[in-house]
Amino acid sequence: MTDPQLVLTERVQQALGSAFGPEHATEDPLIRPSQFADYQANVALSLAKRLRRAPREVAQTIADHLDTADLSVEVSGPGFLNLTLRDGWIAEQAAQRLLDERIGVPQPAPQTVIVDYSAPNAAKEMHVGHLRTTIVGDTLARTHEHLGNQVIRQNHLGDWGTQFGMLIEHLLDIGEEAALGMLAAGDGNAFYQAARHKFDNDPEFQQRSRRRVPLLQGGDPETLRLWREFIEYSNRYFRKVYRTLGVTLTDDDIAGESMYNPMLSDVCDELERTGVAEISEGALCVFPPGFKGRDDQPLPLIVRKSDGGYGYATTDLAAIRYRVRDLKTDRILYVVGATQSLHFQMVFAAARMAGWLHDDVKAEHVQIGSVLGSDGKMFKTRSGESIKLTDLLDEAVVRAEAVIADRGYDAEARRQIARQVGMGAVKYADLSVSHDSEYVFDFDRMLALTGNTGPYLQYATARIRSIFRNGAIEPESVTGPITLGHPAERALALQLLGFGSVVAAVAQLSEPHRLCGYLFDLAQTFTSFYESCPVLKAEEESVRESRLALSALTLRVLLRGLDLLGIEVPERM
């Protein structure tokens, strides 16, 4: 089983080598889908300049050397190669996909991939800003696992630091039961803001808070007990959010700032001992080459402050060293807001200077854009506060239930479908745009049953299930064979063959929106097929079996693809 684009790439590269010499056999043929054929290769236009020949002449020479088994070729325009696959080859490949458990998804040599995502702050509520890092990270983790990689999820909680002195003192003031109840209920922001207000306005409270910090850092048993209570009750709240969203993070994936605290001193010692870091104005700093401030002076990455404290850079460097040396990772994906771009560039550069990142390990910042309101500004409440993520998710379910209210479901079924549709709508709306782009949060658009939305794909999948339900047929029992007579059958079969390469591209490029776009195109292609080609009422038995096979394969691809996105599909809609 082979992806059509990969087959054509290999064929054109062989022709390039035969026609112009082996040095050209690795050229990118620039193969793209075409409205004039199945695919179009544009390599002749770029190659012609180097060969100093006319593009059409180069294209014709490639065509003359091309292996045309299972395809036809035509030179068009200024030098395009129009490539059309034969129906029999497409049908054969689609039939093989139907019998393949992986539906054509490749399984390359496995790697260890760390996905660092979500990362809320303990003792604070999750807000809409955490939505994207959580959803995008979870999809990347699912995709890498499906490709056979060993995935290590890392939830880098903000669970350490000087603010806990303030929080612990406020807890003691109002009582453990009241404080922990607020955290468990998801009212962490109110708790934090009250503590902050006292810290800023009450000198006695501020002094107590400052005295509490060295007790925490020094391991005082009672202070650590209170800190652990904070973390446990915060985690209960996080678990609730993750269950609602349907993401795969668990307590076992927590690797917060506190985990690296014992390593920070040694990290600084190693950086200083190896000459990577130096003392500058009392602070220990790394000066990665190429980074300059507004004054055109080298920009420091501070790893130990002048007062002896540590910052985010120290923790992130400790994490890289641990992940490379102890977890033996091949690749680290940091699914973090785009505003942290400079920070990660400098941290990665410093880690390379220290030898912790090297050619065999790849660290990438998967930049996450902002969620905007209808006014084009940061998505907030009318009072200007960040919107609670739990409130947002609850509203999605309520609105989804209103969308399906007139479909005759009993109360329990309606609640379950509303939950699946609401979460699917929110997740798909996020994942369907490039992760580094901003997008406007709009319930009406994302819950629509038409257009490029999660509910549209869920509905398309449910409609295919209804075909088999009406025919009293189990989709898993359908084996084909597949024959292609109608253009809509051919278009659907060809579209289905592209699934594996799209999944591989999502993992390689960390771009989940590619899978969303593919699934939407597939659903639209199936709709055209469904409208043009009767399935259960096909006139001939062989045609009926073939169309059932195409429907079953489409169902499997949609279900697998949506599962990689973390989207559940109702049996009925």
Task: Tell me what you see in this structure.
- Helices cover 54% and strands 10% of the residues.
- By secondary structure, it is an alpha/beta fold.
- It has a four-stranded antiparallel β-sheet. Strands 6-5-10-11 form a four-stranded parallel β-sheet, with helices on both faces.
- Helix 2 crosses helix 3 and helix 4 crosses helix 22.
- The protein is globular, with a radius of gyration of 28 Å.
Q: Largest sheet, if any?
A: 4 strands, antiparallel
Strand order of the largest sheet: 1-2-4-3
Tell me, rounded to a whole number, the average pLDDT: 93
Task: Indicate the structural class.
Answer: alpha/beta
Number of strands: 13
Terminal-residue CA separation: 34 Å
* Overall 3D form: globular
How is this structure best summarized?
The chain has 573 residues and is α/β, with parallel strands linked by helices. It has helices at 4-20, 43-51, 55-65, 87-99, 129-146, 163-174, 176-184, 188-201, 203-217, 221-245, 257-260, 264-273, 312-325, 341-354, 389-403, 411-431, 443-446, 454-470, 487-496, 499-509, 513-532, 541-564, and strands at 31-33, 39-41, 71-76, 80-85, 112-116, 150-154, 277-280, 283-286, 301-304, 331-337, 362-368, 371-372, 439-440.
